[in-house]
């Protein structure tokens, strides 16, 4: 499927701009700079499908990509969170958009929550996990940038992250480990996305 078509559809700065809920969707969430654009590009095999979130303004939008020809599901790039210097009004706008999307989107099958392998789950990630729990949207935690740490540290952070995930009602107990840089874990991630989107 991913070797077929993957096309950018639209950016939605508010819920009224969402595309019609006609096909299943799988969303990607994470702190800004977690490596979300890089992972989406690695996943879809496109070099610059998702742009890196260099402009804070662009991070306030939900970006939709269509996969398959004929269309069979969508990927949703959710706005990154955790900007240290974001004004409270911006954070509140982000929160409302994301919460309302998670609660109201009937075609949303699963969310992949990206967490930097160097840092593990931070309080802002835990807040996101609580929002997903409350919205009853199932999610998997995906560690990113696994190439940046030693194998022993990776094993430790994976175990710690799985222990954290088990405390959350809507979290999948198994954590995926990836590196967009080394194309590591991409096949497993692709399989997980397809399973979530199509089952
Ligand atoms: P986003 O803000 O979450 O979309 O993050 P980006 O994909 O733009 O990545 C943020 C930074 O991390 C960039 O400098 C990327 O080159 C770097 N990065 C992303 N993925 C990896 C990875 O797997 N390994 C390494 N070493 N760096 C990565």
The coarse silhouette is: globular
Give the CATH class: Alpha Beta
Per CATH, the architecture is: 3-Layer(aba) Sandwich
Number of helices: 5
**β content, as a range?**
15-25%
Could you state the order of secondary-structure elements as H and E?
A: EEHEEHEHEHEH
Under CATH, the homologous superfamily reads: P-loop containing nucleotide triphosphate hydrolases
Count the domains. 1
Question: CATH topology, anyone?
Answer: Rossmann fold
Ions, cofactors and other bound molecules? guanosine-5'-diphosphate
Instruction: Name the strands of the widest sheet in spatial order.
Output: 1-3-4-2-5-6-7
Beta strands, count = 7
pLDDT averaged over residues: 92
* Cα end-to-end separation: 14 Å
What does the largest sheet look like? 7 strands, mixed
**How helix-rich are the residues, as a percent range?**
25-40%
Low-confidence stretches: none
Rg from alpha-carbon coordinates: 16 Å
Structural class: alpha/beta
Describe the structure.
- With 199 residues, this protein is of the alpha/beta class.
- The protein has one domain (6-198): 3-Layer(aba) Sandwich (Rossmann fold), CATH 3.40.50.300.
- Helices cover 34% and strands 21% of the residues.
- It has 5 helices and 7 strands; from the N terminus they run E-E-H-E-E-H-E-H-E-H-E-H.
- A 7-stranded mixed beta sheet has the order 1-3-4-2-5-6-7, with helices on both faces.
- Helix 1 (36-44) crosses helix 5 and helix 2 (88-104) packs parallel to helix 3.
- The mean pLDDT is 92.
- The chain binds guanosine-5'-diphosphate.
- Guanosine-5'-diphosphate is lined by residues 30, 32-38, 52-53, 80, 144-145, 147-148, 179-181.
């Amino acid at each position: 499927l991913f070797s077929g078509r993957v096309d950018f559809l639209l950016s939605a700065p508010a819920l009224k701009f969402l595309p019609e809920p006609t096909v299943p969707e799988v969303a990607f969430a994470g702190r800004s700079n977690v490596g979300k654009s890089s992972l989406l590009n690695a996943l879809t095999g496109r070099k610059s499908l998702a742009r890196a979130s260099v402009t804070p303004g662009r991070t306030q939008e939900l970006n939709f990509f269509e996969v398959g020809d004929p269309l069979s599901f969508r990927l949703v790039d959710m706005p990154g969170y955790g900007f240290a210097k974001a004004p409270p009004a911006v954070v509140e706008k982000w929160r409302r958009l994301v919460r309302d999307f998670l609660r109201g989107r009937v075609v949303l099958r699963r969310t992949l929550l990206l967490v930097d392998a160097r840092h593990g789950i931070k309080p802002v990630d835990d807040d996101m996990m609580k929002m997903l729990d409350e919205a009853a949207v199932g999610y998997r935690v995906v560690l990113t940038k696994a190439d940046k740490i030693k194998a022993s540290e990776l094993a430790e952070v994976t175990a710690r992250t799985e222990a954290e995930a088990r405390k959350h009602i809507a979290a999948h107990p198994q954590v995926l480990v990836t590196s967009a840089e080394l194309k590591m874990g991409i096949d497993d991630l692709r399989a997980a996305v397809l399973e979530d989107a199509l089952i």
